[in-house]
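Q: Predict the bound structure with 1-deoxymannojirimycin.
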Amino acid sequence: MLENEFFEREELGKLLLSPRISNDMGLRSHEQLVVCVGVMFLLTVCITAFFFLPSGGADLYFREENSVHVRDTFIRNEALRKKEQEELLKKAEEANPVPIPKPEIGAADDAEGRRVFVKQMIKFAWDGYRKYAWGENELRPNSRSGHSSSIFGYGKTGATIIDAIDTLFIVGLKEEYKEARDWISEFNFKDLAKGDLSVFETNIRFTGGLLSAYALTGDKMFLTKAEDVATLLLPAFETPSGIPYSLIDLQTGRVKTYSWASGKAILSEYGSIQLEFDYLSNLTGNPIFAQKSNKIRDVLTAMEKPEGLYPIYISMDNPPRWGQHLFSMGAMADSWYEYLLKQWIATGKTDQRTKREYEEAIFAMEKRMLYKSEQSNLWYFAKLNGNRVEHSFEHLACFCGGMVVLHAMNEENATIAQHYMDLGKNIGHTCHESYARSTTGIGPESFQFTSSIEAKTERRQDSYYILRPEVVETWFYLWRATKDEKYRQWAWDHVQNLEKYAKGNAGYSGIRNVYDSNPEQDDVQQSFLFAELFKYLYLIFSDDDVLPLDQWVFNTEAHPFRIRH
Ligand code: DMJ
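A: Predicted complex:
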């Protein structure tokens, strides 16, 4: 919230420096002093109070993925945040009066036109970031200022630059790529990072982004930076079991788990290290990274899984113990399954243990958690809490359609391949229904299946959309696998809805309620918009020889790594 601090300081400066205070009021010098001290006291109270207010929208959204407790805070603070954002916007309008011109939808009636249109969207969003938030983690597109969510700590580490650079390269935004490259060549993560960083997010966005920039360009600088970042994360792996802590402070070296996780690590986090670490060791010849990620895998292989399922929480002792028996295909679990499959593919299908563990895990989930809705025959993975079934499916979980299709594309056994192709189509359809059944044509964060609703939500706290990619990601894999035009059309519908509802003054923003015909924007342009949503949209309108899936595998942040053959 540094932008507010800046504005407060500006106001403070104006008040203290303005000669009109004393002249207009006709006060003597000791009275002026008393007035000044009074004003300063009041301002100090205001500024201090400000720092105790909750942080911005995306912080809450991110934490919301992980903790139900935060949802209450979210609702309570909504009105407060709205007011705060209106003020911010007003001040930003004064400070930056000329908005960047927006792209026109034009004659985008074939794949090429649509691809060019997506490229224009990327340029528009990038220009906004470049102009108003360069070096910050993310952009507030309406306030036209920097933004940072809690996953990045509180330093200005240019997350958008690193998450976006491979997309800039792929779509051919050369000037923009060059500028990003120059910034990264001076990037010193150790100096810039402040506070608690998420080990998982740093790995998938920073290490992953830099590795893919290297894989695409062959520019060694990116590989060196990727190794630097990953090396800084290594202290988090110093635990009895080797399962890493969730958070690390690079300045103090302090490592910890989330306060709400009761000392436990999270499946999707410690389980989504292997692609990056293994690739890094392979490229650099430095074995330490692969050793760390293999250790996690060995520990997991040795553990007994309840009915073949992987609970979300695990202790960090040696040997570790599972926490509460919560199972999901979505938040806090998702990319663990994704990485099992992709690690097998990334190693040129040589890692058979990983393939077997992937198949066993998905099979167990199909058995216990896969449902078909009663009225519309929509397939989805429910959540399990012990034996209690929650008929809820998340936007995050929609990635699994693409995952099973990718399995089908790589599977030799035709029956198994057909089974997962069908499942992928069904999941892609369900997630499309969650979009089609909303007012904006954009799907909510989470949706339910009950006797009265299917693929919709009536929960206010689940109705938002923060530019997530998982649904388009699944349509991308389905397009590549089937060449059914409907997947391109669905992607194009999403582009148009983004234009209508998510476009802000200088970029794209999340929306607070997908069921609102005039939705309020959350004023956050997530870094994964560039890394994932834009990339998948661009690729779905491209030919298959742009990043062919038999040569490239995407990490969970959609950063492409070369498959080892
Ligand atoms: C991304 O950072 C990654 O895809 C991650 O695995 C899950 N969530 C976001 C996007 O929604």
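A: The CA atoms of residues 204 and 557 lie 6 Å apart.
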